[in-house]
Protein backbone atom coordinates (compact mmCIF):
# COMPACT_ATOMS: atom_id res chain seq x y z
CA UNK A 1 0.00 0.00 0.00
CA UNK A 2 1.35 3.40 -0.98
CA UNK A 3 1.24 5.73 2.00
CA UNK A 4 1.98 8.87 0.03
CA UNK A 5 -0.76 11.47 0.01
CA UNK A 6 -1.98 12.58 -3.36
CA UNK A 7 -1.16 16.19 -4.08
CA UNK A 8 -4.20 18.38 -4.72
CA UNK A 9 -4.58 19.31 -8.37
CA UNK A 10 -6.66 22.25 -9.48
CA UNK A 11 -9.59 21.08 -11.65
CA UNK A 12 -9.59 22.15 -15.28
CA UNK A 13 -11.61 25.11 -16.53
CA UNK A 14 -14.08 22.66 -18.11
CA UNK A 15 -14.77 20.94 -14.79
CA UNK A 16 -15.12 24.21 -12.88
CA UNK A 17 -17.49 25.67 -15.47
CA UNK A 18 -19.61 22.51 -15.69
CA UNK A 19 -20.04 22.47 -11.91
CA UNK A 20 -21.03 26.13 -12.13
CA UNK A 21 -23.69 25.16 -14.69
CA UNK A 22 -25.03 22.58 -12.24
CA UNK A 23 -24.93 25.09 -9.38
CA UNK A 24 -26.80 27.71 -11.40
CA UNK A 25 -29.35 25.08 -12.48
CA UNK A 26 -29.98 24.35 -8.78
CA UNK A 27 -30.45 28.08 -8.18
CA UNK A 28 -33.25 28.17 -10.77
CA UNK A 29 -35.24 26.00 -8.33
CA UNK A 30 -34.61 28.48 -5.49
CA UNK A 31 -34.40 32.02 -6.91
CA UNK A 32 -37.75 33.55 -7.95
CA UNK A 33 -38.20 33.93 -11.71
CA UNK A 34 -38.62 37.33 -13.27
CA UNK A 35 -38.32 39.41 -16.43
CA UNK A 36 -37.49 42.91 -17.63
CA UNK A 37 -39.23 44.77 -20.40
CA UNK A 38 -36.85 45.36 -23.31
CA UNK A 39 -36.66 47.96 -26.06
CA UNK A 40 -36.51 47.28 -29.81
CA UNK A 41 -32.75 46.74 -29.58
CA UNK A 42 -33.28 44.01 -26.98
CA UNK A 43 -31.76 46.09 -24.17
CA UNK A 44 -33.39 45.89 -20.75
CA UNK A 45 -35.23 48.94 -19.42
CA UNK A 46 -34.35 49.81 -15.83
CA UNK A 47 -37.26 49.81 -13.37
CA UNK A 48 -39.44 47.41 -15.41
CA UNK A 49 -38.71 44.18 -13.52
CA UNK A 50 -41.71 41.94 -12.83
CA UNK A 51 -42.22 38.38 -11.56
CA UNK A 52 -43.22 35.48 -13.80
CA UNK A 53 -43.81 31.71 -13.61
CA UNK A 54 -40.75 29.68 -12.65
CA UNK A 55 -38.96 27.41 -15.14
CA UNK A 56 -36.50 25.29 -13.10
CA UNK A 57 -33.69 23.72 -15.14
CA UNK A 58 -33.24 19.94 -15.04
CA UNK A 59 -30.67 17.35 -16.16
CA UNK A 60 -31.61 17.76 -19.82
CA UNK A 61 -31.07 21.51 -19.60
CA UNK A 62 -27.70 21.10 -17.86
CA UNK A 63 -26.28 18.97 -20.67
CA UNK A 64 -27.95 21.10 -23.34
CA UNK A 65 -26.41 24.28 -21.92
CA UNK A 66 -22.96 23.88 -23.58
CA UNK A 67 -24.68 23.00 -26.88
CA UNK A 68 -26.82 26.12 -26.71
CA UNK A 69 -23.73 28.02 -25.65
CA UNK A 70 -22.07 27.10 -28.94
CA UNK A 71 -24.92 27.25 -31.50
CA UNK A 72 -27.30 29.66 -29.74
CA UNK A 73 -31.10 29.71 -29.77
CA UNK A 74 -33.85 31.74 -31.43
CA UNK A 75 -33.57 34.36 -28.71
CA UNK A 76 -29.81 34.52 -28.05
CA UNK A 77 -26.60 33.99 -30.02
CA UNK A 78 -24.10 31.28 -29.25
CA UNK A 79 -20.33 31.46 -29.42
CA UNK A 80 -19.93 29.78 -32.80
CA UNK A 81 -18.64 32.96 -34.47
CA UNK A 82 -16.05 33.74 -31.81
CA UNK A 83 -15.09 30.06 -31.43
CA UNK A 84 -14.46 29.77 -35.16
CA UNK A 85 -12.50 33.03 -35.06
CA UNK A 86 -10.26 31.66 -32.30
CA UNK A 87 -9.72 28.38 -34.17
CA UNK A 88 -8.70 30.22 -37.34
CA UNK A 89 -6.36 32.50 -35.37
CA UNK A 90 -4.83 29.32 -33.96
CA UNK A 91 -4.36 28.04 -37.49
CA UNK A 92 -2.77 31.33 -38.57
CA UNK A 93 -0.37 31.29 -35.60
CA UNK A 94 0.43 27.65 -36.31
CA UNK A 95 1.48 28.53 -39.87
CA UNK A 96 3.51 31.55 -38.72
CA UNK A 97 5.21 29.51 -35.99
CA UNK A 98 6.08 26.83 -38.55
CA UNK A 99 8.29 29.39 -40.30
CA UNK A 100 10.05 30.15 -36.95
CA UNK A 101 9.85 33.83 -37.94
CA UNK A 102 8.79 34.96 -34.46
CA UNK A 103 11.45 32.89 -32.64
CA UNK A 104 14.27 33.91 -34.97
CA UNK A 105 13.00 37.50 -34.96
CA UNK A 106 13.44 37.73 -31.18
CA UNK A 107 16.85 36.04 -31.39
CA UNK A 108 17.89 38.40 -34.17
CA UNK A 109 16.86 41.38 -32.04
CA UNK A 110 18.97 40.06 -29.15
CA UNK A 111 22.01 39.76 -31.40
CA UNK A 112 21.45 43.15 -32.97
CA UNK A 113 21.48 44.91 -29.62
CA UNK A 114 24.38 42.97 -28.13
CA UNK A 115 26.51 45.49 -26.27
CA UNK A 116 23.51 47.81 -25.97
CA UNK A 117 21.98 45.78 -23.17
CA UNK A 118 19.96 48.59 -21.57
CA UNK A 119 18.18 49.23 -24.86
CA UNK A 120 17.15 45.57 -25.05
CA UNK A 121 14.88 45.83 -22.02
CA UNK A 122 12.43 48.49 -23.32
CA UNK A 123 12.55 47.12 -26.87
CA UNK A 124 11.88 43.48 -25.96
CA UNK A 125 9.34 44.28 -23.24
CA UNK A 126 7.44 46.43 -25.74
CA UNK A 127 7.44 43.58 -28.28
CA UNK A 128 6.16 41.07 -25.73
CA UNK A 129 3.58 43.62 -24.48
CA UNK A 130 2.28 44.11 -28.02
CA UNK A 131 1.98 40.33 -28.32
CA UNK A 132 0.00 40.17 -25.07
CA UNK A 133 -2.22 43.08 -26.03
CA UNK A 134 -3.04 41.89 -29.55
CA UNK A 135 -3.32 38.12 -29.30
CA UNK A 136 -2.92 37.21 -25.64
CA UNK A 137 0.68 36.03 -25.83
CA UNK A 138 1.40 33.78 -22.85
CA UNK A 139 2.57 30.20 -23.20
CA UNK A 140 4.59 31.20 -26.27
CA UNK A 141 7.01 33.10 -24.02
CA UNK A 142 8.29 29.86 -22.45
CA UNK A 143 10.50 29.18 -25.48
CA UNK A 144 12.37 32.47 -25.02
CA UNK A 145 13.43 32.16 -21.37
CA UNK A 146 16.62 30.10 -21.86
CA UNK A 147 18.09 32.55 -24.40
CA UNK A 148 16.82 35.60 -22.48
CA UNK A 149 18.34 34.38 -19.22
CA UNK A 150 21.64 33.58 -20.94
CA UNK A 151 21.84 37.01 -22.59
CA UNK A 152 20.77 39.03 -19.54
CA UNK A 153 23.21 37.24 -17.24
CA UNK A 154 26.06 37.55 -19.73
CA UNK A 155 25.67 41.36 -19.90
CA UNK A 156 25.60 41.80 -16.11
CA UNK A 157 21.91 41.51 -15.22
CA UNK A 158 20.18 38.50 -13.61
CA UNK A 159 17.50 35.92 -14.28
CA UNK A 160 14.77 38.11 -12.74
CA UNK A 161 15.38 40.72 -15.42
CA UNK A 162 15.11 38.02 -18.07
CA UNK A 163 11.83 36.68 -16.67
CA UNK A 164 10.44 40.20 -16.35
CA UNK A 165 11.08 41.02 -20.00
CA UNK A 166 8.83 38.24 -21.28
CA UNK A 167 6.47 37.54 -18.37
CA UNK A 168 5.75 41.07 -17.13
CA UNK A 169 5.93 42.39 -20.68
CA UNK A 170 3.37 39.98 -22.12
CA UNK A 171 0.98 39.96 -19.15
CA UNK A 172 0.94 43.74 -18.73
CA UNK A 173 0.05 43.67 -22.42
CA UNK A 174 -2.88 41.42 -21.52
CA UNK A 175 -3.78 43.85 -18.71
CA UNK A 176 -4.16 46.56 -21.36
CA UNK A 177 -5.54 44.31 -24.11
CA UNK A 178 -6.50 46.28 -27.19
CA UNK A 179 -7.74 43.67 -29.68
CA UNK A 180 -6.89 40.46 -27.83
CA UNK A 181 -9.41 37.97 -29.31
CA UNK A 182 -9.39 35.80 -26.17
CA UNK A 183 -10.21 38.69 -23.85
CA UNK A 184 -11.49 41.73 -25.76
CA UNK A 185 -13.06 39.64 -28.50
CA UNK A 186 -14.97 37.19 -26.32
CA UNK A 187 -16.11 39.89 -23.87
CA UNK A 188 -17.25 42.19 -26.69
CA UNK A 189 -19.16 39.40 -28.39
CA UNK A 190 -20.89 38.59 -25.10
CA UNK A 191 -22.18 42.18 -24.96
CA UNK A 192 -22.83 42.52 -28.70
CA UNK A 193 -20.15 45.20 -29.02
CA UNK A 194 -17.47 45.72 -31.61
CA UNK A 195 -13.98 44.87 -30.27
CA UNK A 196 -13.07 48.38 -31.40
CA UNK A 197 -15.37 49.99 -28.82
CA UNK A 198 -13.19 51.47 -26.08
CA UNK A 199 -10.00 50.97 -28.10
CA UNK A 200 -8.61 54.48 -27.54
CA UNK A 201 -8.75 54.35 -23.71
CA UNK A 202 -7.16 50.89 -23.80
CA UNK A 203 -4.32 52.19 -25.96
CA UNK A 204 -3.72 54.93 -23.40
CA UNK A 205 -3.76 52.38 -20.56
CA UNK A 206 -1.36 50.21 -22.59
CA UNK A 207 1.17 53.03 -22.94
CA UNK A 208 0.92 53.97 -19.26
CA UNK A 209 1.21 50.48 -17.77
CA UNK A 210 3.90 49.23 -20.16
CA UNK A 211 5.98 52.36 -19.54
CA UNK A 212 5.70 51.91 -15.76
CA UNK A 213 6.73 48.26 -16.07
CA UNK A 214 9.72 49.04 -18.29
CA UNK A 215 10.97 51.75 -15.92
CA UNK A 216 10.56 49.40 -12.95
CA UNK A 217 12.56 46.59 -14.58
CA UNK A 218 15.23 48.96 -15.93
CA UNK A 219 15.80 50.51 -12.48
CA UNK A 220 16.30 47.07 -10.96
CA UNK A 221 18.54 46.01 -13.86
CA UNK A 222 20.73 49.12 -13.45
CA UNK A 223 21.07 48.44 -9.71
CA UNK A 224 22.20 44.86 -10.38
CA UNK A 225 24.56 45.98 -13.14
CA UNK A 226 26.30 48.43 -10.78
CA UNK A 227 26.41 46.02 -7.85
CA UNK A 228 25.65 42.33 -8.58
CA UNK A 229 25.25 41.66 -4.86
CA UNK A 230 22.02 43.73 -4.99
CA UNK A 231 20.45 40.98 -7.09
CA UNK A 232 17.60 39.17 -5.33
CA UNK A 233 18.97 35.90 -6.77
CA UNK A 234 22.65 36.70 -6.13
CA UNK A 235 23.16 33.36 -4.37
CA UNK A 236 22.61 31.63 -7.74
CA UNK A 237 24.76 33.96 -9.82
CA UNK A 238 27.75 31.65 -10.30
CA UNK A 239 25.48 28.66 -10.91
CA UNK A 240 23.43 30.61 -13.45
CA UNK A 241 26.56 31.82 -15.24
CA UNK A 242 27.68 28.22 -15.66
CA UNK A 243 24.26 26.78 -16.54
CA UNK A 244 23.09 29.49 -18.92
CA UNK A 245 26.42 30.33 -20.57
CA UNK A 246 26.02 31.34 -24.19
CA UNK A 247 27.34 29.04 -26.88
CA UNK A 248 27.52 29.50 -30.63
CA UNK A 249 24.33 27.48 -30.97
CA UNK A 250 22.43 29.84 -28.64
CA UNK A 251 22.98 32.73 -31.00
CA UNK A 252 20.64 31.20 -33.50
CA UNK A 253 20.71 31.62 -37.24
CA UNK A 254 20.25 34.73 -39.29
CA UNK A 255 16.71 35.45 -40.43
CA UNK A 256 15.99 34.65 -44.02
CA UNK A 257 14.26 37.04 -46.38
CA UNK A 258 11.16 34.85 -46.31
CA UNK A 259 11.02 34.96 -42.52
CA UNK A 260 11.30 38.74 -42.56
CA UNK A 261 8.43 38.86 -45.03
CA UNK A 262 6.36 36.62 -42.75
CA UNK A 263 6.99 39.01 -39.84
CA UNK A 264 5.76 41.92 -41.94
CA UNK A 265 2.65 39.93 -42.88
CA UNK A 266 2.13 39.03 -39.22
CA UNK A 267 2.23 42.68 -38.18
CA UNK A 268 0.12 43.81 -41.14
CA UNK A 269 -2.58 41.27 -40.27
CA UNK A 270 -3.12 42.70 -36.80
CA UNK A 271 -2.92 46.25 -38.14
CA UNK A 272 -5.65 45.52 -40.70
CA UNK A 273 -7.77 43.90 -37.99
CA UNK A 274 -7.50 47.03 -35.85
CA UNK A 275 -8.36 49.30 -38.79
CA UNK A 276 -11.27 47.02 -39.69
CA UNK A 277 -12.96 46.99 -36.28
CA UNK A 278 -12.51 50.64 -35.26
CA UNK A 279 -15.92 52.32 -35.87
CA UNK A 280 -14.48 55.30 -37.76
CA UNK A 281 -17.77 56.92 -38.75
CA UNK A 282 -19.06 56.59 -35.17
CA UNK A 283 -15.99 58.42 -33.87
CA UNK A 284 -16.45 61.17 -36.45
CA UNK A 285 -19.39 61.29 -38.86
CA UNK A 286 -17.12 62.75 -41.53
CA UNK A 287 -14.65 59.82 -41.42
CA UNK A 288 -16.30 57.91 -44.26
CA UNK A 289 -13.17 57.36 -46.37
CA UNK A 290 -13.24 53.57 -46.08
CA UNK A 291 -16.94 53.40 -46.94
CA UNK A 292 -16.44 55.58 -50.02
CA UNK A 293 -13.29 53.75 -51.11
CA UNK A 294 -14.94 50.31 -50.78
CA UNK A 295 -17.99 51.50 -52.73
CA UNK A 296 -15.71 52.87 -55.47
CA UNK A 297 -13.53 49.74 -55.54
CA UNK A 298 -16.39 47.26 -55.76
CA UNK A 299 -18.01 49.40 -58.46
CA UNK A 300 -15.09 48.93 -60.89
CA UNK A 301 -16.09 46.55 -63.72
CA UNK A 302 -14.63 43.05 -63.34
CA UNK A 303 -12.38 44.06 -60.42
CA UNK A 304 -15.42 44.63 -58.21
CA UNK A 305 -16.81 41.23 -59.17
CA UNK A 306 -13.38 39.61 -58.73
CA UNK A 307 -12.92 41.04 -55.22
CA UNK A 308 -16.56 40.58 -54.25
CA UNK A 309 -19.27 43.21 -54.26
CA UNK A 310 -20.27 42.30 -50.69
CA UNK A 311 -16.87 43.39 -49.37
CA UNK A 312 -17.31 45.06 -45.98
CA UNK A 313 -15.50 48.41 -45.56
CA UNK A 314 -13.04 48.99 -42.73
CA UNK A 315 -14.85 50.22 -39.67
CA UNK A 316 -17.77 47.80 -40.06
CA UNK A 317 -15.94 44.53 -39.46
CA UNK A 318 -17.07 41.96 -36.94
CA UNK A 319 -16.00 38.38 -36.21
CA UNK A 320 -16.87 37.02 -39.66
CA UNK A 321 -14.66 39.54 -41.44
CA UNK A 322 -11.82 39.13 -38.93
CA UNK A 323 -11.94 35.35 -39.32
CA UNK A 324 -11.71 35.76 -43.08
CA UNK A 325 -8.69 38.06 -42.69
CA UNK A 326 -6.68 35.53 -40.65
CA UNK A 327 -7.62 32.70 -43.01
CA UNK A 328 -6.55 34.75 -46.02
CA UNK A 329 -3.31 35.87 -44.41
CA UNK A 330 -2.45 32.28 -43.46
CA UNK A 331 -2.67 31.41 -47.16
CA UNK A 332 -0.54 34.46 -48.00
CA UNK A 333 2.13 33.25 -45.56
CA UNK A 334 2.06 29.85 -47.24
CA UNK A 335 2.81 31.34 -50.67
CA UNK A 336 5.34 33.92 -49.46
CA UNK A 337 7.28 31.32 -47.45
CA UNK A 338 6.99 28.77 -50.30
CA UNK A 339 5.45 26.29 -47.89
CA UNK A 340 4.25 22.95 -49.23
CA UNK A 341 0.50 22.46 -49.24
CA UNK A 342 0.74 19.42 -46.96
CA UNK A 343 3.00 21.32 -44.52
CA UNK A 344 0.58 24.25 -44.53
CA UNK A 345 -2.44 22.05 -43.78
CA UNK A 346 -0.61 20.23 -40.98
CA UNK A 347 0.58 23.52 -39.46
CA UNK A 348 -2.86 25.16 -39.78
CA UNK A 349 -4.75 22.21 -38.30
CA UNK A 350 -2.09 21.81 -35.61
CA UNK A 351 -2.51 25.46 -34.68
CA UNK A 352 -6.28 25.06 -34.57
CA UNK A 353 -5.86 22.04 -32.31
CA UNK A 354 -3.81 24.15 -29.87
CA UNK A 355 -6.79 26.49 -29.46
CA UNK A 356 -9.58 23.91 -29.61
CA UNK A 357 -9.93 23.82 -25.82
CA UNK A 358 -10.27 27.62 -25.77
CA UNK A 359 -13.02 27.52 -28.41
CA UNK A 360 -14.94 24.85 -26.49
CA UNK A 361 -14.51 26.36 -23.03
CA UNK A 362 -16.13 29.57 -24.28
CA UNK A 363 -19.23 27.59 -25.29
CA UNK A 364 -19.35 25.80 -21.93
CA UNK A 365 -19.04 29.12 -20.13
CA UNK A 366 -21.79 30.68 -22.25
CA UNK A 367 -23.98 27.75 -21.20
CA UNK A 368 -24.18 29.32 -17.73
CA UNK A 369 -25.95 32.33 -19.20
CA UNK A 370 -28.43 30.09 -21.04
CA UNK A 371 -29.26 28.20 -17.84
CA UNK A 372 -29.89 31.52 -16.10
CA UNK A 373 -31.94 33.03 -18.92
CA UNK A 374 -33.96 29.86 -19.58
CA UNK A 375 -34.61 29.58 -15.85
CA UNK A 376 -35.63 33.26 -15.80
CA UNK A 377 -33.31 34.15 -12.91
CA UNK A 378 -31.01 36.49 -14.86
CA UNK A 379 -33.51 39.32 -14.51
CA UNK A 380 -33.91 38.57 -10.79
CA UNK A 381 -30.15 38.77 -10.23
CA UNK A 382 -30.00 41.98 -12.26
CA UNK A 383 -32.91 43.40 -10.29
CA UNK A 384 -31.07 42.71 -7.03
CA UNK A 385 -28.04 44.44 -8.49
CA UNK A 386 -30.19 47.32 -9.69
CA UNK A 387 -31.57 47.81 -6.18
CA UNK A 388 -28.11 47.74 -4.64
CA UNK A 389 -26.39 49.85 -7.27
CA UNK A 390 -29.00 52.45 -8.14
CA UNK A 391 -27.38 55.03 -5.88
CA UNK A 392 -23.81 53.80 -6.36
CA UNK A 393 -21.52 56.23 -8.24
CA UNK A 394 -20.01 54.97 -11.49
CA UNK A 395 -16.49 55.32 -10.10
CA UNK A 396 -17.20 53.03 -7.15
CA UNK A 397 -18.94 50.48 -9.37
CA UNK A 398 -15.99 50.20 -11.77
CA UNK A 399 -13.58 49.73 -8.86
CA UNK A 400 -15.80 46.98 -7.42
CA UNK A 401 -15.89 45.38 -10.88
CA UNK A 402 -12.09 45.36 -11.04
CA UNK A 403 -11.82 43.73 -7.60
CA UNK A 404 -14.61 41.27 -8.47
CA UNK A 405 -12.57 39.92 -11.36
CA UNK A 406 -9.37 39.39 -9.34
CA UNK A 407 -10.67 36.36 -7.35
CA UNK A 408 -12.74 35.26 -10.36
CA UNK A 409 -9.50 34.97 -12.34
CA UNK A 410 -8.33 32.36 -9.84
CA UNK A 411 -11.67 30.53 -9.91
CA UNK A 412 -11.89 30.44 -13.72
CA UNK A 413 -8.31 30.47 -15.09
CA UNK A 414 -9.48 30.69 -18.69
CA UNK A 415 -9.52 34.35 -19.77
CA UNK A 416 -12.06 33.72 -22.50
CA UNK A 417 -14.13 31.39 -20.31
CA UNK A 418 -14.32 34.02 -17.59
CA UNK A 419 -15.54 36.63 -20.06
CA UNK A 420 -18.17 34.34 -21.54
CA UNK A 421 -19.41 33.30 -18.09
CA UNK A 422 -19.73 36.74 -16.50
CA UNK A 423 -20.13 39.49 -19.07
CA UNK A 424 -23.82 38.78 -19.57
CA UNK A 425 -24.40 39.90 -15.96
CA UNK A 426 -21.70 42.51 -15.41
CA UNK A 427 -22.43 44.47 -18.60
CA UNK A 428 -26.11 45.15 -17.81
CA UNK A 429 -25.28 45.81 -14.14
CA UNK A 430 -22.89 48.54 -15.26
CA UNK A 431 -25.70 50.33 -17.06
CA UNK A 432 -27.59 50.79 -13.79
CA UNK A 433 -24.64 52.83 -12.51
CA UNK A 434 -24.04 54.59 -15.80
CA UNK A 435 -20.87 52.65 -16.68
CA UNK A 436 -20.34 51.95 -20.39
CA UNK A 437 -20.10 48.24 -21.33
CA UNK A 438 -16.71 48.71 -22.99
CA UNK A 439 -15.32 50.08 -19.70
CA UNK A 440 -16.57 46.95 -17.92
CA UNK A 441 -14.50 44.96 -20.44
CA UNK A 442 -11.46 47.14 -19.74
CA UNK A 443 -11.81 46.53 -15.99
CA UNK A 444 -12.14 42.79 -16.53
CA UNK A 445 -9.06 42.66 -18.78
CA UNK A 446 -7.02 44.76 -16.36
CA UNK A 447 -7.84 42.47 -13.44
CA UNK A 448 -7.02 39.32 -15.39
CA UNK A 449 -3.70 40.71 -16.67
CA UNK A 450 -2.76 41.94 -13.20
CA UNK A 451 -3.37 38.50 -11.69
CA UNK A 452 -1.52 36.75 -14.53
CA UNK A 453 1.79 38.33 -13.49
CA UNK A 454 1.86 36.72 -10.04
CA UNK A 455 -0.63 33.85 -9.77
CA UNK A 456 1.02 30.58 -8.65
CA UNK A 457 -1.75 28.63 -10.39
CA UNK A 458 -0.54 29.84 -13.80
CA UNK A 459 1.54 27.47 -15.90
CA UNK A 460 3.12 30.50 -17.56
CA UNK A 461 4.35 31.97 -14.27
CA UNK A 462 5.46 28.70 -12.72
CA UNK A 463 7.04 27.50 -15.97
CA UNK A 464 9.14 30.66 -16.26
CA UNK A 465 10.23 30.47 -12.62
CA UNK A 466 11.11 26.79 -12.96
CA UNK A 467 13.35 27.44 -15.97
CA UNK A 468 15.14 30.25 -14.11
CA UNK A 469 15.27 28.33 -10.80
CA UNK A 470 13.51 31.19 -9.01
CA UNK A 471 11.02 30.41 -6.25
CA UNK A 472 7.58 32.02 -6.17
CA UNK A 473 8.29 33.89 -2.90
CA UNK A 474 11.27 35.67 -4.48
CA UNK A 475 9.16 36.53 -7.52
CA UNK A 476 6.38 37.95 -5.33
CA UNK A 477 8.89 40.06 -3.40
CA UNK A 478 10.43 41.32 -6.63
CA UNK A 479 7.09 42.28 -8.18
CA UNK A 480 5.37 43.56 -5.01
CA UNK A 481 6.02 47.28 -5.58
CA UNK A 482 5.23 47.04 -9.29
CA UNK A 483 1.95 45.25 -8.61
CA UNK A 484 1.00 47.92 -6.07
CA UNK A 485 1.78 50.71 -8.54
CA UNK A 486 -0.13 49.00 -11.37
CA UNK A 487 -3.08 48.42 -9.05
CA UNK A 488 -3.32 52.09 -8.05
CA UNK A 489 -2.72 53.41 -11.58
CA UNK A 490 -5.26 51.04 -13.16
CA UNK A 491 -7.96 51.84 -10.60
CA UNK A 492 -7.30 55.56 -11.01
CA UNK A 493 -7.49 55.23 -14.79
CA UNK A 494 -10.81 53.35 -14.62
CA UNK A 495 -12.32 55.93 -12.30
CA UNK A 496 -11.19 58.79 -14.56
CA UNK A 497 -12.80 57.01 -17.54
CA UNK A 498 -16.16 57.03 -15.72
CA UNK A 499 -15.91 60.81 -15.36
CA UNK A 500 -15.20 61.53 -19.03
Care to give the gist of this entry?
With 500 residues, this protein is mainly α. It is built from 23 helices and 2 strands. The longest helix has 28 residues, at 199-226.
Number of helices: 23
Mean of the pLDDT scores? 84
Q: Measure the end-to-end span.
A: 66 Å
Q: What's the order of the H and E elements? A: HEEHHHHHHHHHHHHHHHHHHHHHH
What structural category characterises the helix and strand content? mainly alpha
Biggest beta-sheet profile: 2 strands, antiparallel
Model regions low in confidence, pLDDT < 50 over at least 5 residues: none
Q: What share of the residues lie within helices?
A: 55-70%
What is the overall shape? globular
- Strand adjacency order, main sheet: 1-2
Strand composition percent: under 5%
Tally of strands: 2
Calculate Rg over CA atoms.
24 Å
Mind explaining what this structure looks like?
- The protein has 500 residues and is an all-alpha fold.
- It contains 23 helices and 2 strands.
- It has helices at 13-27, 59-71, 80-98, 101-112, 117-135, 145-154, 159-175, 181-190, 199-226, 237-243, 257-277, 280-283, 289-298, 303-307, 319-336, 341-354, 356-374, 378-389, 394-411, 415-432, 437-452, 459-468, 472-499, and strands spanning 34-35, 50-51.
- A two-stranded antiparallel ribbon has the order 1-2.
- Helix 5 runs antiparallel to helix 9, helix 6 crosses helix 7 (159-175) and helix 19 (394-411) crosses helix 21 (437-452).
- The radius of gyration is 24 Å and the shape is globular.
- The mean pLDDT is 84.
Amino acid sequence: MNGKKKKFQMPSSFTILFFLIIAVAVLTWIIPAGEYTTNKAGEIIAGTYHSRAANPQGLWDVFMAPIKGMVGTDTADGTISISLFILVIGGFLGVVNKTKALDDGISSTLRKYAGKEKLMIPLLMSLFAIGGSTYGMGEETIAFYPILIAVMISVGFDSLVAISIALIGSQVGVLASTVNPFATGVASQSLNLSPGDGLVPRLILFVITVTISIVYVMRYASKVKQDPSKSMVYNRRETDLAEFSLSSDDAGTEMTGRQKAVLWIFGLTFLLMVIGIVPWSSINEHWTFFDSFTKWLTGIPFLGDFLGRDMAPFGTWYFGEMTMLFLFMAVVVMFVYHMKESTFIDAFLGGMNEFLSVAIVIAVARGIQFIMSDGYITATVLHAGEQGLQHLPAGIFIVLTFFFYIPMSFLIPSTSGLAAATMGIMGPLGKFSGVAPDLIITAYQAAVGWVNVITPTSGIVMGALAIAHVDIVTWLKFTAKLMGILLVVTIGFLVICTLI
